[in-house]
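Field reference: sequence -> structure
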Amino acid sequence: MTKTILYARVSTAEQTIAHQITQARQAGFVIDEALSDDGVSGVTVSLSERPQGKRLFDILRSGDTLVVRWVDRLGRNYQDVTDNIREFMRRGVIVRTSINGMVFDGATKDPMQMAVRDALIGFMAAMAQAQAEATKEAQRAGIEHAKTKDRPRVYKGRKPSYSRQQLSLILSLLDAGAGASDIAKATGLTRQTILRIRADRAAAEEALKAWGL
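Structure field:
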């Protein structure tokens, strides 16, 4: 009998295991078992080195579903996240997120679906690593802002709603033939944003450069 297991790495008061179970159930999942690593650094400790993370590799079987709040729960950096997702897929485990309803299934053989899936894995893992470094970047940005706050402002246009990683993913998916609606769901951006980028890729790139993104 297949089962659905929720894995959580609890790092803040707002991310309790109970909260993540409730969130998963609200997303339509029926959770058979929940595992949680509390007080474990997501930046320095790989999934296979965490007590409950290690247990995932022992108990998950082909046909089982692994539910996580977001892919950053599955590793300490880009390489760790992508390696773990692909390892679970090789074992026949379906990885799903309770945010945005992303699904990573190794069973698909359709080239288009495989290309989109692999692009999403890379993008989400990159975002996970970026989030892990966000605090340090915010500190550096705060220092830089303090140094430059008295300089004259130059109008740079409206700040893009997408990041450079998101733009790279969008362009890859567009080249793969994905539709605007599917790309919007995958990236969390609006369909109108995807259509604007598709209509003028150069302008989308220039907007990022203007803002130093």
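Note: The CA atoms of residues 77 and 129 lie 5 Å apart.
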